[in-house]
Design goal:
A six-stranded mixed β-sheet has the order 4-7-9-10-11-12, sandwiched between helices. It has a three-stranded antiparallel β-sheet with strand order 1-3-2, with no helix packed on it. A three-stranded mixed β-sheet has the order 6-5-8. It is built from six helices and twelve strands. The protein is globular, with a radius of gyration of 16 Å. The chain is an alpha+beta fold and 200 residues long. The model has no long low-confidence stretch (mean pLDDT 90). The protein has a single domain, classed as tt1808, chain A (Alpha-Beta Complex), CATH 3.90.1570.
Length: 200
């Protein structure tokens, strides 16, 4: 990730100043470029296509993409602009204003983050922000097993973490490894194992 500006921006200013090339997030008032490796993209694209297949086969009222940016708020009240690696969005919400940019202020259905060297963002910052926003389901795909041992075990094992929002607005975590089938609230008929995702 590289910083492209030092000026403190609001979410609306971030959208107005969004660069034409590449993918970016608004973090602590700064536009930050989001860059990824081919392995990272392979894992994210595998899930994007798998979710798209489920949506088509079951005629679900969702769209899935990897470009949506949405506004979150930190515990201190700072506006952030987040772009998950994969977003599953209610189709009615997505199509409510067709000429709008791909920026949303309401919670999406499911967000997926594939971990990279800035893994603390996924496990700490985004987890908190997505919970505050009310995103129903949040996946962390740690195919490199680079998070802390408290998450991944000792020895560290590549894992898929699924956080589901409970009735109190708090995430409940389930960890999936190896040949365990991932259980998703958004896609209850999904038949993917952790291993299939982690080795994509």
């Amino acid at each position: 990730m590289t910083t492209s500006t030092k000026q403190k921006l609001t979410f609306d200013q971030f959208i107005d100043n969004y660069p034409e090339e590449g993918f970016y997030e608004l973090v602590n008032g700064e536009i930050i470029e989001v860059r990824s490796t081919r392995n990272h993209d392979d894992v994210a694209n595998f899930l994007l296509f798998a979710f798209n297949d489920e949506i088509r086969q079951l005629k679900l009222n969702y769209v899935v993409n990897n470009t949506a940016v949405f506004r979150t708020i930190t515990a201190s009240g700072t506006e952030q602009g987040r772009k998950p690696d994969v977003s599953v969005i209610n189709r009615d919400t997505w199509r409510s204003n067709r000429s709008d940019y791909s920026a949303l202020e309401e919670p999406i259905q499911l967000a997926v983050e594939v971990t990279s060297t800035n893994w603390e963002d996924d496990y700490i910052d985004k987890l908190d922000e997505y919970q505050r926003l009310g995103i129903s389901e949040y996946w962390i795909v740690d195919y490199l097993a680079i998070g802390k041992r408290e998450y991944l075990g000792n020895p560290k094992v590549p894992s898929v973490f699924v956080f589901l929002l409970d009735t109190d607005g708090k995430y409940q975590l389930t960890k999936f490894t190896g040949t365990e089938r991932i259980i998703s609230r958004t896609f209850p008929e999904l038949s993917l194992t952790a291993e299939q995702v982690l080795t994509a």
